[in-house]
Amino acid sequence: MKDIIFDSFQNDVSESLLRHKSILDVLTKYTESSSRINRAVAKAVTNCGCIEINAKKQCLPNEDNSLEDLSECLKTHMDGCLCESCREVIEREIGNNLFYLTSLCNILDINLYDVLLKESDKITTLGKFTFR
Question: Which pTM does this prediction carry?
Answer without folding.
Answer: 0.84
